[in-house]
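Priority: medium. Attachment 1 of 2:
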């Protein structure tokens, strides 16, 4: 077998296994958009604390899904300067 074929079969096997992974059902009271925004804004601080305390996590689990993820990403952009950094580069 050629090297590319082996790599392709290995990647296909990993994708097949990843497709079997499940998500828990969204529970009432799960964290939503605004909690994601807050968690994203404090993510760097949470990371530093998580190095010393195993009960602190950067990302809330379980959460409400895509809206939480969207808020988390927006919250993270505040550390990168957000739109101000993009405007300054012009």
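Attachment 2 of 2:
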């Amino acid at each position: 077998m050629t090297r590319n074929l082996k790599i392709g079969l290995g990647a296909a096997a990993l994708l097949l296994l990843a497709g079997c992974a499940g998500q828990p059902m969204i529970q009432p009271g799960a964290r939503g958009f605004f909690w994601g925004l807050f968690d994203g804004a404090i993510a760097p601080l949470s990371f530093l604390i998580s190095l010393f305390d195993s009960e602190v996590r950067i990302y809330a689990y379980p959460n409400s899904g895509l809206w939480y993820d969207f808020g988390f990403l927006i919250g993270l952009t505040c550390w990168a300067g957000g739109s101000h950094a993009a405007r300054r580069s012009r």
